[in-house]
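Q: For a teaching session next week I want to show students how multiple molecules come together into a single three-dimensional assembly. I've collected the sequence lines for a complex. Could you give me the predicted structure tokens for the whole thing so I can convert them for display?
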Amino acid sequence: MNDKSLSQISLPIENELVRFGEIFKQSLKSKVGLVDLVTRYILKQKGKKIRPLLVLLSSKAAGEVTERSYRGAILVELLHTATLVHDDVVDNAETRRGFPSINAVWKNKIAVLIGDYLLARGLMIAVEGNDFDFLKVITRTVKRMSEGELLQIKKTRSMDNDEKTYFRIIADKTASLLSTCCEIGARAATNDNSEIEAMRNFGENLGIAFQIRDDILDYIGKTNIIGKPLGGDIREKKITLPLIYALKNAGNSESKKIIKIIKNGKTSADVKYVIDFVKDKGGIQYSEKVAEQFASEAISNLKIFKESIYKNSLLDLVEFIVKRKN
Amino acid sequence: MNDKSLSQISLPIENELVRFGEIFKQSLKSKVGLVDLVTRYILKQKGKKIRPLLVLLSSKAAGEVTERSYRGAILVELLHTATLVHDDVVDNAETRRGFPSINAVWKNKIAVLIGDYLLARGLMIAVEGNDFDFLKVITRTVKRMSEGELLQIKKTRSMDNDEKTYFRIIADKTASLLSTCCEIGARAATNDNSEIEAMRNFGENLGIAFQIRDDILDYIGKTNIIGKPLGGDIREKKITLPLIYALKNAGNSESKKIIKIIKNGKTSADVKYVIDFVKDKGGIQYSEKVAEQFASEAISNLKIFKESIYKNSLLDLVEFIVKRKN
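A: Of course. Below is the structure for the complete assembly, covering every listed component.
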């Protein structure tokens, strides 16, 4: 399979994505000037739009894009945007997608409220469309996402993360929403429960692979591409898969030394030291292998769907996600 | 009518409130230790529980307390708790009900996530109970609440608040939820649309009176009772009804002087100066009169309900709210 770019992957649903963009923009309008100002700022920062892409492709792979598919895509993108805005408060982030973050421009108070507003807007759209099944899925997802983030904070403080907890955290904080995208896309197109379940599992496995790749990129990515500095997780004392593996495969005294550097280190040299340690111990290759396993699992989840250009795009997306450089 | 205490008002639904407390506690359980820790902390701070009280009394006044009434009460209390936790981030509050606030103890990041978690839990309970009508009401309410807060922030910055905008802000940020409590309580007990609408209007008018009273208490309350310092709004440059009225009835140069003090003043003497100015200009009496008008409106909204001890409690609650000292 040739590696495809995100725009090549999106090609079969190009028109649908344009329509999505229009409805999304419309859905952000507010009679409160400050809300409009902030949401226009958000709209300027074009993200990868992987979540709407997943909803629409899942609908196509399981049948057709329907009005419910669009509402589902708007719902997940609003929820995702809400969590990004809240995450920036959570992480004290100063930039997001290369732009100053909402909390950096307008302070925490506004970031918190805009996040709440976006979440409410998303849920309203599902409520008004009578998409009760979407609400069932999405409220559970919001719960999982906040629990995942909170568990990560706890583990960051105690600095004793292990693989099992790591997978629980990334499944809850990241994979839950990608899984929801695929499930909602399928629900909008079919009533077949085995297809809905297959799409949910596909999204969950894809999401885990996605987050592992994200955590790898923190060790090998480039600042100017991903818009966040290399080694950011180390600076925030987040212990992710590459480091968990490296620590497990180092001697006891070396491990203690690394943990001490992460705890107290502040310089770029400290960060570079940890990065080199992880690379030396094979933490990157191991994580890439694990990401590939989840990717394979995701691919096999799609077996029950008939061949189509849409299914192929989902398969290409899996490849894209585990190989992406940003 | 004799003024009654909140516990006297609650008497007719004493047992229902106990049951509510048990279910509420249950609903906050989480498998994530940190979530449990924070929610146990929240449960220790017993608030006035006015919102569940409103839901349960509204159900009784319109029929009976049902399983749906309890779910509605849990939903609004979770939402209210979520907004309190987020508000403390928004306001950088250091205390809440006499306790250190969540953000003061656990920092903003956790406060934001716990708020999201509580909101998601509330919505999940409604989703699992198939209370689609509650979700319709509540998502609109979350949107109104965040818009109201954001409008208030904007007006606080520009310092040009007027009565019309003030009423819009307090209707959205405060009355919307009290209105929702009463509407949900009625919906849980009856299908009669005129009764549902009457309860919604009752809650909206009650909520506006409630917030005006809150804003009055900022000028005449006592720190040790309400757990927030006197003149807090002045320090935060929030221009509320007592001040709006006083400014309108002062000379141009005096108004400018007061605005300047609020903008730049930092000492207790500055705050006291503004409080005395508002009192001198009759800002307190005027606001009390306006609160009484909304209270009367609320009372007349209840006319269509048959006489009962529950309706009487709602009427007593109106009196309680406009006369409360904390």
